[in-house]
């Protein structure tokens, strides 16, 4: 039988380890401050955030981790450590779909850590505006949901925006019914973002068939409205329930399990290759026979993996479409670079929306 170590002894050990960790954290923070001075000496301006480096740091932690902490927990800790180090170098501001408590804010914290300053704006268009006018160096926008498909506002804006995609992050989306009402029968209106209303369509048909459904700019805006009126409910995340102090009437009301939203980070910065990247493109082929086949050929020829393709109206003519394509790899990786050169010759328009590290967790 192994001897049991007395609690007092274990706590002493924990205290000593905590002191060591604190010392190491501060040594790391000093290093980050030194990095900032070096960047300034090299004449670097703007933000000190480096999505490529952050992704490499987090992947290395995943590789080094021997447990018993799960990889995801170890990554989360280091995510926060880097976030705090970056805040010491220079605080970072990120525009998100506000108000406080939206899934977009949750995505911003997951990607940048909690030392980032999140700046709420009212619409997806305003997120792009805030970054294009350099009010914020980065913005987080939803791009695709596993239940409801693409967020067309985001794709339409990407088509014309000069911004680059610098990163991606996924959030497992749990929807909840929040209200001050005591009974479902007292709820006359359910507010939420149109995507969230759609993700809970069957639940609403079954449990609140009498209530009107009204789309608002964000789930958190819906929660704000529900907090002001007893006859109203909101569909939103738990974060919004906390911010607006609303009771959760029913948890996890999304129709499809694993309901997940993918967000992208938009900014002016170009990320360098990390070995595990994605590149997003928009392509227009024109309505010619065999055009689609020709468009896909370079990916097959150069062995580039296509992970997503979506068509959207081009807004240039009736039934004229553009294709949003995600491929594996960075635009500077040899196979991708060759495929893009070949693709450019075969299509009417090719816009590279960005190459960025794949989400680490
Ligand atoms: O390596 C850098 O360029 C740093 O600024 C350091 C650091 C880090 O803490 O590891 C902090 C912020 C950057 O986004 C990336 C990494």
From TrEMBL:
One Pfam family named in its UniProt record: PDT
Entry keywords, A to Z: Amino-acid biosynthesis, Aromatic amino acid biosynthesis, Cytoplasm, Isomerase, Lyase, Multifunctional enzyme, Phenylalanine biosynthesis
One GO term describing the cellular component: cytoplasm
Stretches assigned to the Prephenate dehydratase domain: 93-268
UniProt cross-references to SUPFAM superfamilies, sorted A to Z: ACT-like, Chorismate mutase II, Periplasmic binding protein-like II
EC id: 4.2.1.51, 5.4.99.5
InterPro entries in UniProt: ACT-like_dom_sf, ACT_dom, Chor_mutase/pphenate_deHydtase, Chorismate_II_sf, CM_dom_sf, CM_II_prokaryot, G/b/e-P-prot_chorismate_mutase, Preph_deHydtase
Domain ACT as annotated: residue spans: 280-357
Domain of life: Bacteria
Chief subcellular location: cytoplasm
Cited function: Catalyzes the Claisen rearrangement of chorismate to prephenate and the decarboxylation/dehydration of prephenate to phenylpyruvate.
PANTHER family linked: PREPHENATE DEHYDRATASE P PROTEIN, PREPHENATE DEHYDRATASE-RELATED
Protein name listed in UniProt: Bifunctional chorismate mutase/prephenate dehydratase
Organism in which the protein naturally occurs: Methylovulum psychrotolerans
Gene (UniProt): pheA
